[in-house]
Amino acid sequence: MTHISSDRTKWTIHGERAVDENRHIRLSVASVELPTGVRFDQYVLRLPRCVMTAVLDEAGENILLIYRHRFIIDRWDWEVPGGYVDPGEDPAAAAVREAEEETGWRPRSVEFLYSFQPMIGSADARQDLYLAYGADLVGEPHADAPPVPPNVISLADRRKKRDEHAG
Predict the structure, then answer these.
(1) pLDDT higher at 5 or 102
(2) Which of 83, 97, 110, 117 is the most exposed place for a label (fewest CB within 10 A)?
(3) Cβ-based neighbours of 13, under 8 Å, separated by 6 or more
(4) pLDDT (0 to 100) of residue 123
(5) How far apart are CA 150 and CA 141, in angstroms?
(6) CB–CB of 30/24 below 8 Å?
(7) Neighbours of 81 (CB within 10 A)
């Protein structure tokens, strides 16, 4: 594999101006230049760090999911619990807190898996994924949690349905 110098591939940022901003998002326009000399404006989203937790049972056979409506895509969809890391908060603690707030289940422990940027071409939106084996029911989901109770989904059943759909 040939290594290419970052100077030959790095974009130059000539400036960035905010369009709108609140505690959950910053939208700006950056004036950028490609290594070829082409210049253009690029919209940029910056979001606070988020965490998600895949909460499995002890055997790793079932996963705890939330079924909720998302108005942006106008669709109900399955999600793992997650949300923003509060300023100064430990991300692992945030992963446990978010799972408990959204499901009523407190993971016994969480293990950091990896961080990723899901919209890297236009957003700085770091997402940290955690894995938990086992959780204890400690109460009801938080008041602003989805109205549909969380569900435990069999991973084996999901794989079977996926395979049937693909075949």
Answers:
(1) 102
(2) 117
(3) 30, 31, 32
(4) 95
(5) 9
(6) no
(7) 27
pLDDT digits (tens, 9 = 90+) for 24-45: 999 999 999 999 999 999 999 9
- DSSP code at position 80: -
- Reading the block at residue 157, the tokens are 């059943």
Helix (H, G, I), strand (E, B) or coil at 129: strand
Matching residue, tokens 């070829």: 36
Q: Which two tokens stand for residue 89?
A: 């908060």
Task: Kindly write down the DSSP assignment for every residue of 46-112, as one continuous string.
Answer: E---EEEEEEE-TTS-EEEEEEEEETTTTEEEEE--EEEPPTT--HHHHHHHHHHHHHSEEES--EE
CB 79, CB 68: distance < 8 Å: yes
